[in-house]
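Most newcomers find our protein records easier to grasp once they have seen one. The structure tokens are whole numbers drawn from a learned vocabulary of backbone shapes. The record below serves as our worked example for the rest of this section.
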Amino acid sequence: MSKLKELRLERKMTLKQLSDVLGIPIGTLGNYEQNFRSPRFPTANKIAAYFERPIEEIFPEYQRTSPYPKHTTASKN
């Protein structure tokens, strides 16, 4: 089960109710839940904000590899 579906069911919401709240078509949300499609970043961010969760928790494809650029120190030679 996808994290999106899990969060929706925790709130005891139907796909229709979530669709109405977010303004995203039911079929599109269904595709996200079944992992047939991934949302674009603005849509994924909207969904994550609604559930008050980090975007990468719901959509692992948005997992950051590093939150900051690597820090390099100057050599002391």
Summary: Helices lie at 3-10, 15-22, 26-33, 41-51, 55-58. The domain at 3-61 is CATH 1.10.260.40 (434 Repressor (Amino-terminal Domain)). The chain has a mean pLDDT of 88.
